[in-house]
Amino acid sequence: MTWTATERYRLEPAPGGLGLVQDLLNTVAAGAPARPDLLADVTGAQGWADAAGTAWAAATGRPAPHLVLDAEGVDELRAFREGLHDVAARAGRGEDAAPPPFPERSAAVALRLGEDGVVRLEPRGTGRRHLVALVLAELYEGQRADTARRLKTCRNPLCRVAFYDRSRNNSGVWHDVKTCGNAANLRAYRARQRER
């Protein structure tokens, strides 16, 4: 299983289907050196969506979704990603303020009783609507399992990488301490030195 957007930052993916949420967040142009935005055009977005659907199926044991994206859907998917990023960034800082408005705050899902007796959320819609429903369903499941709070975005203002905080006390703030944490700590140290 490969989460292509997350793997390019050399990060371990979030567990289970929450990896889809992390991977969508990591399609953004970020890091040092900056990686390209995987949702910049329809071809790139479709390639990412196909790979993410396959990885989601492997992570959850469910059939891979067939997602077909168009230009309008990709634009709306980027807007959804930005809103989701803002929510994740605020949550990672422990802020409770109301989230900024962004499109697609809801999605169509159905409850389905499986042969194994487990009730699951079944995303509905086509194209980006189905993808948004998958992302929101996985975020909901992560909240229920109390794992979604560990999905954060790097606190370095120059970096937007999403990471899954595996620290014991959920205190991580950098996607990579060596690159983002050390640079931020050095900037803070130099600022304190200038003030003296």
**Spatial shape:** globular
Strand order of the largest sheet: 1-2
Q: Fraction of residues in helices?
A: 40-55%
Number of strand elements: 4
- How would you characterize the largest beta sheet? 2 strands, antiparallel
Oligomer: single chain
Low-confidence stretches: none
SSE string = HHHHEEHEEH
Residue share in β-strands = 5-15%
Q: Tell me the span between the first and last alpha carbons.
A: 51 Å
- Structural class category: mainly alpha
Radius of gyration: 17 Å
Report mean pLDDT, rounded to a whole number.
85
**How many helices does DSSP assign?**
6
Key features?
4 strands, 6 helices, 8% strand, 196 residues, mainly alpha, two-stranded antiparallel sheet, two-stranded antiparallel ribbon
Description of the structure:
This protein is mostly helical and 196 residues long. It has 6 helices and 4 strands. Strands 1-2 form a two-stranded antiparallel sheet. Strands 3-4 form a two-stranded antiparallel ribbon. A hairpin with a 5-residue loop joins strand 1 and strand 2 (119-123). Helix 2 (18-25) runs antiparallel to helix 3 and helix 2 (18-25) crosses helix 5 (127-144). The longest helix is centred in the middle third of the chain and has 22 residues, at 71-92. It is globular and about 65 Å long. The termini are far apart.
